[in-house]
Amino acid sequence: MTTVTTNTQPSLKIPKPIKITAHILERTSPRMMIKFATKLFSTPIKYPTPKREEKMLEGCVLHQVYSKSLDKKIVVYDYMNPDSKKIALLVHGWSGRGTQLFKIADMLVKEGYRVMSFDGPAHGKSEGKTSNMKEFIETIKTVSEVYGPFEVIIGHSLGAMSTLNAVADGVAAKKIICVGAADVIYDIFDDFIEKLELDKKYTPLLYANMERKLKVKMDVYSSSIAAKKIDIPTLIIHDHDDQDVPISAARHIVPALKKGRLIETHNLGHRKILGDAQVIQQMNQFLNEVD
C-alpha cells in the first residue's frame, strides 16, 4: 500500500432548488417524489468543456459509433499516436466528459499509447437525455468491438465500476486502473437520498423503482462482485478524503480481485486525484511493470 499527500477539494452538491422540489413532492405525493428522484438519478449534468481540457479536445479526431443495444450514437475521442498498437481506453464518471482524464491521457501519449475515450450516453456530445451504469457498460463493449482489445482501461468513479463490470463480462484488456470506484450499488442510492436530504426510508423505494425500470437486479453491478471474475492486474486508487465514495469501498473491492493492488492517497478528494502528478506517476509505473 502506498500513500501520497497534497490538498483537497469539496465534492459537488445537489442544488438547493432541486432539494426543495424533492421535499415538496415528499409532502404532497411520495410516489411522484420517487418518480422525480429516479429521473434525477438518471439525468447527468452537462458541464461545458473547461479550458484545461481544450488541448486534448483539439488534438483528438472525433468518431461516432452506434450502439445497437442502446440505439444511441456515441462520440469517441481518438487522441494521438494513431498508428500505435498499444491502445488505452479512458472511461469518465457521471456528468463527466471524454476529455476529463486529460492529464492521464497526456501521460499515456508520452508512453506511446493511442488513447481512446468517449462521452457516455447523455453526456457531452453523445446522444440521449438519461443514462445509467448499464448503459456505460454497454458503451464500453461497443467501443471495444470497434477499437479493442486494449492494453489498459482506466476508469473514474462510475466509469471505474463500469470498467470492472465490462471486463468481467468479457471486454478484453491486459490491465485495469480504477480511480474512486464505488462498490455496493445500494449504498450509491442511499448516498443519493442523503444528498437530497430525504428520509432513508425512500432508499429501497428508489432502488426498487430503478430495478423495475432497467429490468435487472442492481446488486449484480457491485464492484466487488464483478471483481471476482477478473484475473488481470488491477490497480485501485482511492483517496481517504473522497466525499463522494468512502475509502472502505476500495478496501472491499481489492480482496475480491485475483491480482489487485490498492494505492491510498490523502487530501485529493474525488476529482483532483485525476490530475495529481504522483498518482499519474504511480499509474505509469504500474503500466510498465512486467507481469
Descriptive report:
Helix 2 (30-42) packs across helix 8. The chain has eleven helices and nine strands. It is globular. It has one domain: 3-Layer(aba) Sandwich (Rossmann fold), CATH 3.40.50.1820. Mean pLDDT is 94; it is low at 1-10. A nine-stranded mixed beta sheet has the order 1-9-8-7-6-4-5-3-2, with helices on both faces. The protein is 39% helix and 20% strand. The longest helix is centred in the middle third of the chain and has 15 residues, at 133-147. The protein has 291 residues and is an alpha/beta fold.
Please count the helical segments: 11
Per CATH, the class reads Alpha Beta
Distance between the termini: 18 Å
- In the sheet with the most strands, the strands line up as 1-9-8-7-6-4-5-3-2
Kindly report the average pLDDT value: 94
**Order of H and E elements:** EHHHEEEHEHEHEHHHEHEH
Hey, roughly how much beta strand do the residues contain? 15-25%
Indicate the percent of residues in helices.
25-40%
Shape: globular
- Largest sheet composition: 9 strands, mixed
Tell me the count of domains: 1
CATH homologous superfamily designation:
Alpha/Beta hydrolase fold, catalytic domain
- Compute the number of strand runs: 9
CATH topology: Rossmann fold
Q: Which runs of at least 5 residues are low in confidence (pLDDT < 50)?
A: 1-10
Q: How many whole angstroms does the radius of gyration measure? A: 18 Å
CATH architecture: 3-Layer(aba) Sandwich
Helix/sheet category: alpha/beta
